[in-house]
Specification:
The complex is a heterodimer of chains A (about 170) and B (about 725). With about 170 residues, chain A is of the alpha+beta class. Helices cover about 35% and strands about 15% of the residues of chain A. Chain B is of the alpha+beta class and about 725 residues long. The chains are: A alpha+beta (about 170), B alpha+beta (about 725).
């Protein structure tokens, strides 16, 4: 079927098998391999991308479902020569080892910080209605959909906290 | 010119201590990091050659027997069940392909065919619809229901352990079980194969290219020089990518048959079935000690399993003979031949489960003898290797225990079940960390270009370990260059063969070969500068001799090349080489639900010279977290009827997630091991897991009084033991 996808600000017209997931469309048809396939079942978070700014598992999303929504992948978040502040913190804090879960972690954290800023509570939040503090427990809870077998977890949380503090300073 | 070194003798004075650049050991951020955080690093299944086809593996649905027929696959280009398809993955460092012949099934889930189609979706659908008939046979799948093999060379006994147990003031005799574990690297195994005439290029996730090339060539029936392997980035390995697997063999055969490049990516479930599992273990530990805690007897009996005919057996007792002293000792190693999936190396084969269980036993003995667990360990550390009387290359266990006790606040530990905060019991636990150390033959080439930039080339891999960065630092240090003046090229079998990544030997082995190549170039620079090498200082691209300093690029008229070749030598045998450390954990156990939350962990480690403070720490964090998973959540459950892995995805096999892992602390002891080559560096990719789980299990007991000897310590087992 004919599918039109808007990815990182560019519209692509593709002819795809209707069973094609957003993840496979990105990786196999658009060459955007920054989005990773770790399980293809929504269990690991390596395929996390932003759909209208919100994080989703690209493996659980059919490409044909998202034709009217802008998709942002890791390739749309920064370049090796111009990292986003969050990417820079991942680099500085060694928030990755093999790097395979890393694009998913970074996409997820990018959206997650906006969820906190919007005051969305989580299981770890002390108060369901007040502002949410960017604590270790809060970040760890909200990032638990992104697995990392190398287990850079504590470095990832440090990187996210630091990036959040920078955002706070800038705001 | 090749600079060769066989490590036959200690090197008391490390030449790296006399270099001027000052970059070795520093917490340099990963050189390839900007590519990884922006999604530009390309892994196995991330090339798109023209005409790429998609292959999906088909798995056996019987535990053993014969494949009688495989039907057609409408919508697919081919269904391939070539006799060269391998039945299980190659063991690490094997030089031949593993047993082939997919029509004979040895375990449930074995790869028996590959379906190839123009699209992934079509291949997957066709593979699922395939009609297969079998002739199944009954086979044993329970390791405790068969009479195991007991290879003579794997058994040992000194003195009379039974007598020591009778005579001792305090004894312990218990049995532990650990389940099958899996590496669960985040990148599934994958390969893209492309032929050009009789030359084959395979892009895949491999830890060790040189031996994997030999295995794959042998499996396909081609010469190694017809095959080029590429693995520039590997999404984790932990042992599961040491040898070739069904993906690359299937992709290569299919690509040859169809005349187009073929990609085969395992599904996550296939990775669980087809990557080697760490064998489940049954471990009986017997300990005897005097009233003041001196061990008089040590017994460690292990039962592990593997498929018939596979030589690997989990070396559970590997560190037991030399960790603690006792006059009466016995090691028993039994192997059950059963038809579960193939067992092989998973991070720290041997000590990961062996030291973990042994350190739980030490904790129980300490309780029985009413001795502080730290003191019990301290008073049983041998001066030389028990049995052989070889000296240790270095020995830092005592220092690791004392330093850790102080840093962790061990003196605040309360007696068992004496600290309740709200509904949570709080406890602390300790364990020793130990892992054998070795070097593996390794080669590298370094090119110093006329503009003063250096290129490192070796078929070494970086599986998240930090190879790119430490090899760059070693070259930068030795050649006196800023690290950004060094380009490191890895993961291409056209480059000189390195040790590969495995067994914690990569950094020291490959790093030494890079150092040797650079040392060769230093000699050439000294000749150009007309000075003795001893008078040569290289720093920030400047060449200093006496009072004269000039730019390196002004001295060079052409590029210089150095080759480095490291071989392990006599120090493998003259001394006992190991890395040492201590693990500390504080846990909270819910008095009603049995839930365990790890509140903090500390690891204190001695691994010789630390080559990069930042990446070394990350290796330890990873190991400690593996230990956390082993203690609390990870288990591959086998169906008792047919052995198939029931928990074969990431929602059923629980690796630790963000919320499971508290802030972790790592402390390195200053150490310089002179027996391991000029770097004085040892491995640490595995030390972090060896004993980490025991610290948690021991902390659980200290918190709530429950001993869990059937790992993992899930809430049901804790509740069953709680007294209130």
């Amino acid at each position: 079927m004919q599918i039109s996808l808007s990815v990182n600000g560019t519209t692509h017209d593709l002819t795809l098998d209707p069973r094609t997931t957003l993840l496979d469309a990105l990786r196999q048809h658009l060459g955007l391999t920054g989005t990773k396939k770790g399980c293809d079942h929504g269990q690991c978070g390596a395929c996390t991308v932003l759909l209208d700014g919100r994080r989703v598992n690209a493996c659980l999303t059919l490409a044909c479902m998202v034709q009217d929504q802008p998709v942002t992948t890791i390739e749309g978040l920064g370049t090796p020569d111009a990292l986003t502040p969050l990417q820079q913190q991942f680099l500085d804090h060694d928030g990755f080892q093999c790097g395979y879960c890393t694009p998913g972690q970074i996409c997820s954290a990018t959206a997650m910080l906006k969820e906190i800023a919007a005051g969305w509570p989580s299981h770890a939040s002390a108060d369901l209605t007040g502002p949410v503090a960017v604590t270790h427990a809060e970040i760890a809870e909200r990032m638990s959909g992104n697995l990392c077998r190398c287990a850079a977890y504590s470095n990832i949380v440090d990187a996210i906290r630091q990036a959040a503090e920078q955002q706070g300073d800038a705001a | 010119m090749t600079r060769h070194l066989k490590v036959d003798a200690p090197i008391p004075d490390s030449p790296l201590d006399h270099m001027a650049q000052g970059v070795l050991g520093k917490p340099v951020s990963r050189l390839e990091g900007p590519l990884k955080v922006t999604g530009r690093a390309t892994y196995a299944a991330e090339a798109r050659p023209d005409g790429l086809l998609y292959g999906v593996l088909v798995q056996a649905a019987i535990p053993a027997g014969k494949v009688l027929s495989i039907g057609d696959a409408p919508g697919a280009l081919a269904v391939i069940h070539d006799p060269r398809l391998i039945r299980y993955a190659a063991q690490g460092m094997a030089t031949e392909g593993p047993t082939a012949g997919p029509d004979q099934v040895e375990y449930m889930g074995q790869a028996i065919a590959v379906v190839v189609a123009e699209t992934f979706e079509a291949a997957q659908a066709a593979a699922q619809a395939l009609q297969i008939t079998y002739e199944a046979k009954d086979v044993p799948v329970d390791p405790e229901a068969v009479e195991p093999e007991r290879p003579e060379k794997k058994q040992s006994a000194t003195g009379d352990l039974d007598r020591a147990m009778q005579d001792a003031a305090h004894t312990l005799d218990q049995i532990w079980h650990t389940p099958s574990h899996t590496a669960a690297a985040m990148e599934p195994h994958a390969a893209i194969a492309e032929w050009s005439g009789d030359q084959l290029t395979v892009r895949a996730g491999y830890q060790m290219l040189a031996t994997s090339r030999e295995q794959l060539a042998d499996a396909l029936g081609i010469r190694p020089d017809q095959l080029r392997l590429l693995a520039p980035y590997v999404g984790g390995g932990f042992g599961s990518k040491l040898g070739i697997n069904a993906d690359s063999v299937a992709a290569a055969i299919a690509a040859h048959q169809l005349g187009r490049p073929v990609q085969v990516v395992m599904t996550r479930q296939q990775v669980f079935d087809l990557a080697h599992r760490r064998s489940e273990t049954r471990q009986r530990i017997r300990l005897a000690c005097t009233a003041d805690g001196k061990l008089t007897g040590i017994g460690h009996e292990a039962l592990v399993s593997n498929l018939p005919g596979v030589s690997f057996s989990e070396p559970v007792t590997q560190a037991t003979p030399f960790t603690y002293q006792a006059a009466h000792r016995q090691i028993v190693h039994a192997i059950a031949r059963i038809h579960r999936s193939c067992a092989g190396s998973v991070r720290a084969p041997g000590e990961a489960v062996g030291a973990t269980v042994f350190e739980c036993a030490m904790d129980e003995l300490a309780e029985t003898a009413d001795i502080d667990p730290v003191e019990l360990r301290l008073c049983n550390i041998p001066d030389t290797e028990p049995g052989t009387n070889r000296p240790f290359s270095s020995h830092k266990l005592a220092e690791a225990l004392r330093e850790g006790a102080s840093r962790f606040g061990w003196s605040d530990r309360r007696p068992t079940r004496q600290r309740l905060e709200g509904e949570w019991y709080i406890g602390m636990g300790v364990a020793s960390a130990v892992r054998v150390n070795s070097l593996i033959e390794s080669r590298a080439r370094v090119i110093l270009q006329a503009d003063g930039r250096a290129i490192v080339e070796t078929d070494m891999t970086d599986i998240g370990t930090g190879s790119y960065t430490i090899l760059g630092q070693i070259a930068a240090e030795t050649l006196g260059l800023a690290v950004d003046r060094v380009e490191v090229r890895l993961g291409d079998s056209d480059f000189p063969p390195a040790s590969g990544s495995g067994g914690s030997f990569g950094a020291a082995s490959s790093g030494t070969s890079v150092y040797l190549a650079c040392a060769e170039i230093r000699s050439q620079i000294a000749a150009l500068a007309g000075c003795d090498e001893a008078d040569l200082t290289l720093q920030n691209g400047q060449v200093r001799t006496g009072n004269v300093s000039r730019p390196l690029d002004a001295l060079l008229t052409a590029e210089l090349t150095g080759d480095g070749h490291l071989e392990p030598g006599k120090t493998e045998d003259t001394v006992r080489q190991a890395t040492w450390g201590s693990h500390w954990a504080e846990v909270a156990v819910n008095r009603w639900t049995g839930e365990v939350r790890v509140r903090r962990m500390l690891g204190v480690f001695a691994c010789g010279r630390v080559l990069n403070e930042k990446t070394a720490r990350s290796q330890c964090l990873g190991g400690m977290t593996f230990g956390l998973g082993m203690a609390l959540t990870e288990a591959m459950e086998h169906d008792p009827r047919d052995g198939h892995i029931v928990t074969r995805d990431l929602a059923e096999y629980h690796i630790p997630c963000h919320a499971d892992v508290p802030p972790l602390e790592v402390h390195f002891l200053s150490e310089s091991d002179t027996y391991v080559g000029p770097l004085h560096a040892k491995g640490l990719g595995e030390l972090g897991i060896c004993g980490a789980g025991a610290a948690i299990l021991n902390a659980i007991h200290n918190a709530c009084g429950v001993r869990v000897r059937e790992l993992p310590a899930t809430p049901d087992k804790i509740i069953a033991g709680l007294q209130d």
